[in-house]
Amino acid sequence: MIGYVLFTDLKGYSKLSESEIGLFFRKIIPELSQRIDRYLQKAIVKNTWGDALVAIFDNSHDVVGLAFEYREFFRNYPFESIGMRKLLPRIACHFGEFELYDDPLKGGKNALGSNINTAARVEPVTRAGEIFVTSECKSAIENSPRKVENIKFSDLGIIPLAKNFGDWEISRLCRANEKEQIIDRVLKMDLSKALPEAPDMAVQERNLLQFLKNAPGAEELRSLLTPQIISGKTGAFIVALANTCKSFGLYNEAIAYIEEAEKTETLVDGIKVFPYRHKKDVRKLKANCLTRVGRYEDAADIVYGLWQSGVRDSDTLSMLAAQYKRRALYGDGTVVAKASINKNLLCRARDLYLEAFRINIEDYYPAINAAYLYKIIAGIELGRGNRLALYILDVWGERRGEDWWLDSTLAEAEMLLENYEDCITGFQEAIERHKPDAFQRKAVHEQISLYASLTNQADSTEIIEVLQRLQ
């Protein structure tokens, strides 16, 4: 079927107190239902959860009518009169093909398909109080057999959608008598000349990088890293070289190259800027390498800076958790005795890993780290660590074979459950299948060695055999 998919949510809903949430469902939702029911009656699919609404229509008049009715209801609602903070709607609409099916849990029709996901990814980037539509939706409305009157579109240009879903041509849908907003023109501006990207690698640089990646081992690579190797090279090459050094376990060399890349400058209308000082991925790479060489405070400072600048993704939270874990478990560069562990810091690290997992439940990295910490903390936490390890195996087990990190995580989960035979088999198959480099093996080896030391299993024959597989 081809139709219109509308998604909404409310900015400010997540900050409501418990009493405000009660007001929302007991007072506001019944009033909203009365206002939009005539549209929802015509919806082919409709569903709600919390503050979100999704509805699918085959008629342009119905989807436009619902979008405006929903927007005006919340724009004009007297929140102050009932003692609530204001909620502003974000409304997104896409047009495309999807599949209808009978949903036995819902007791009615439901829909699936990539176009449903597209609409869901437009909604988070929609300005509060506005209606954003894709170019497909705009075209379908404009070419509707029965013209939709009294509307207009403000083109916003190409906008990156949520969760790295890609870039999409987006427009703002509004009434014909509404004024164009200055922010619409700003979004539409091409700032590539004012804020150019740093130059990409040249072909010769790519060829050289590939040659270096093929080095047989860390010492062979180190012998190739002459001072001339970065002379006259782009910042992109120097950062890529730092990544290569990291993958071989040459962390100090990686840090040195990152710091060289940070000095790379470019001129924008005579203004000198340093693009690699601020790139998120470069900052994360540097923090990771600093941690590996024991410069925990420097690494923590970078991660904290990322967090304060708004980079609040699962990856950044996991990096922050890793800093707390290091501080809790290491003293003077060596693992402390179990009795000397700073349990408060370790619990904080665990909670940060759990929050990272909550933010992105597709990311198994914080999940396995939280499982490890549950087991190390021990006591009543042991059972939780086992349950989390079981969850990892249940959820990601079917994807075994995708890459080294997933397969090693599954093997580690088996180890935490003391299924050592399955763990050893899992590592053996992962090594044969993915041929992990020195960094990949070392990272997992260090994690398991730390766990064994802190759980008094360093002399366990099963753990020793696991570690031997990772040598």
UniProtKB/TrEMBL annotation:
Domain Guanylate cyclase as annotated: residue spans: 4-123
GO MF annotation, one: adenylate cyclase activity
One BP annotation, GO: cyclic nucleotide biosynthetic process
Domain of life: Bacteria
Name of the protein described by the UniProt record: Guanylate cyclase domain-containing protein
